[in-house]
Structure to design on (292 residues):
């Protein structure tokens, strides 16, 4: 079972041997069983990696994220074919009915707002919690009345302060962006491994965004990152902040009647969205609950 998120921070060489990722540095040599890895983040641009290891990482459907010189996520490794029936899945994706997509997006936005409301409640913003709960009940198909945008304004202004904006390059945003980037990659992994493509979304349609579908599906999971950043007051993207954010993927949530890690919940939820879209039944979506 893939459950580890491996972060490479120092100059080293990465290669493959007998089912293991081998990490060779001046200090020592370490090994990690590939079947345990879900995400590999290469943070240091001085790292060297063998082509054979890259091939094995792709075949194991391990998401590999490369960072720039500022140690921010820059790109990721995506295979051409994530499933044996990718052509069929892509045909399905292009045949999804617009009304079905609108209904699925309605459910996603509703749940995102509920998750945001629960974070507000955790930090004793009870009046705002009620406001967002009301917003969640007002979401229409396709979110035609933009309840998501109205909820976001109330939510962020209370969680991170009245002066906070998502466009700023300081405050909490570097840590939020790092966390959202990791979430996006986790969803990319599930979408591609199931045979679908990330470029074609159900709501997001930006021609310059090759991850429109992932951007759609990740929305209800964003508040998990917000909560970690708020709880630990992460305003500087240091090594400790990254570890705390990455560790949040191993936290337990409840989904489909069972306790699962966030990474496993992403898999269960994502596949339920595919079921909903293919069956024209948005009630099939399985959302997580989290005891904050």
């Amino acid at each position: 079972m893939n459950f580890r998120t491996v972060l490479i921070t120092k100059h080293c060489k990465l290669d493959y041997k007998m089912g293991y990722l081998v990490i060779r540095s001046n200090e020592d040599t370490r090994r990690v069983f590939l079947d345990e890895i879900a995400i590999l983040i290469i943070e240091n641009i001085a790292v060297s990696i063998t082509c054979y290891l890259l091939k094995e990482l792709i075949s194991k459907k391990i998401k590999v994220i490369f960072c720039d010189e500022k140690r921010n996520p820059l790109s990721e490794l995506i295979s051409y074919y994530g499933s044996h029936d990718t052509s069929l899945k892509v045909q399905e994706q292009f045949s999804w009915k617009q009304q079905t997509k609108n209904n699925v997006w309605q459910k996603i936005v509703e749940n995102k707002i509920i998750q945001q409301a629960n974070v507000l409640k955790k930090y004793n913003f009870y009046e705002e919690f009620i406001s967002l709960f009301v917003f969640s009940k007002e979401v229409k198909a396709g979110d035609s009345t933009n309840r998501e945008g109205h909820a976001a304004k109330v939510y962020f202004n209370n969680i991170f302060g009245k002066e906070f904006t998502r466009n700023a390059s300081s405050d909490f945003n570097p840590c939020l962006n790092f966390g959202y980037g990791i979430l996006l990659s986790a969803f990319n992994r599930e979408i591609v491994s199931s045979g679908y493509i990330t470029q074609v979304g159900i709501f997001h349609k930006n021609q310059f965004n090759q991850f429109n579908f992932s951007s759609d599906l990740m929305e209800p999971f964003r508040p998990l990152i917000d909560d970690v950043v708020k709880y630990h007051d992460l305003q500087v993207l240091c090594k400790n902040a990254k570890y705390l954010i990455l560790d949040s993927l191993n936290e337990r949530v409840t989904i489909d009647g069972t306790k699962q890690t966030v990474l496993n919940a992403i898999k269960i939820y994502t596949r339920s969205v595919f079921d909903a879209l293919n069956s024209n039944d948005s009630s099939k979506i399985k959302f997580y609950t989290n005891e904050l």
Observations:
- The longest helix spans residues 98-122.
